[in-house]
Amino acid sequence: MTALLEVENLRVAYGKIEAVKGISLHVEQGQTVALLGINGAGKTTTLRTLSGLLRPTAGTIRFGGRAIEDLPAHRIVALGLAHCPEARRIFPRMSIEENLRLGAFLRGKIDLGRDLEAAYARFPVLGERRDQTAGLLSGGEQQMLAIARALMSHPKLLMLDEPSMGLSPIMMQQIMQTIAELKDAGTTVLLVEQNAQAALALADYAYVLETGRVVLEGTGRHLLADERVRSAYLGQGQEPIERQ
């Protein structure tokens, strides 16, 4: 079976500094796949490259069987690959509803009203404050808006970059519950998340990145039980993982 997303030997550089050094990963339809690693491991760079915001120096990216590594970002979104970026990147001076409408821009007005109501049903606080300026939302509410905006494009694959970053424990639980609900509904998700335990509990499969390379991979359940992962990412130490 062909994976929905296939990344082979991806390399990405910022000038002379190579941030991603030949990683390969696959995401099957309906899977939740996690990318783990400390800051600087190459996780965000990988997502930005998959969404067309950065250009790889080598390697291939296939989405739905089509090569996309040379496509502009708007074409990639139109194909069904949506990116909910780190730090949310909402439009703070626009209303909640205007932010959501922008998420559906490439689709036009087809089913727009229905999709807005679905977003408000998933995140009632957004519906209650739909005409409010988005910049007045709390951090957790802004994250809800960012996820809802990405879903407005009807993605075949949703990429989430650090959705719990900077949130209170209660709000983090709400965001993780939302991701679990999306998973149960069959949404395909590629998740970068600082909370390794929460990410692995959700993930069907996961990859551990260090200095731009995949050093470990396996099912979420397997990696949760792996002593190397527990030591490096679950609060028992910070020793690097050497690839076996």
Topology:
Blueprint: E1 5-14, E2 17-27, E3 32-36, H1 43-50, E4 58-63, E5 66-67, H2 73-79, E6 81-84, H3 96-103, H4 112-122, H5 124-128, H6 139-151, E7 157-161, H7 169-184, E8 188-192, H8 196-202, E9 205-210, E10 213-218, H9 220-225, H10 227-233
Parallel strand pairs: 3-8, 3-9, 6-7, 7-8
Antiparallel strand pairs: 1-2, 1-4, 4-5, 9-10
Describe the structure.
The C terminus is likely disordered. This protein is 36% helix and 25% strand. Helix 7 links the parallel strand 7 and strand 8. The strands form two sheets. Strands 6-7-8-3-9-10 form a six-stranded mixed sheet, sandwiched between helices. The chain is built from ten helices and ten strands. It has one domain: 3-Layer(aba) Sandwich (Rossmann fold). It has 244 residues and is an alpha/beta fold. The radius of gyration is 18 Å and the shape is globular.
